[in-house]
Sequence to fold (70 residues):
Amino acid sequence: MNDPQKPPSFWQVLHSVMAAAFGVQSSKNRARDFTHGKPGQFLLLGLLFTGVFALTLFAIVKLVLHFAGG
Fold:
């Protein structure tokens, strides 16, 4: 299905970043990432994911406080 010599696609990198963020990365995908992935892709998507995640949490807290009358 996947050629082991190919670098991971954008969606595979995104999936790996999200899985790693929640601590559920499979050893097969981790091995693929370390052998064929480019560190810059993971760094960029990791920073982007962290920023979006933090902003989402911030928005949820603001929404809850707004409806709670705070």
In short: The chain has a mean pLDDT of 92. Helices lie at 10-22, 27-36, 39-68. DSSP finds three helices and no strands in the chain.
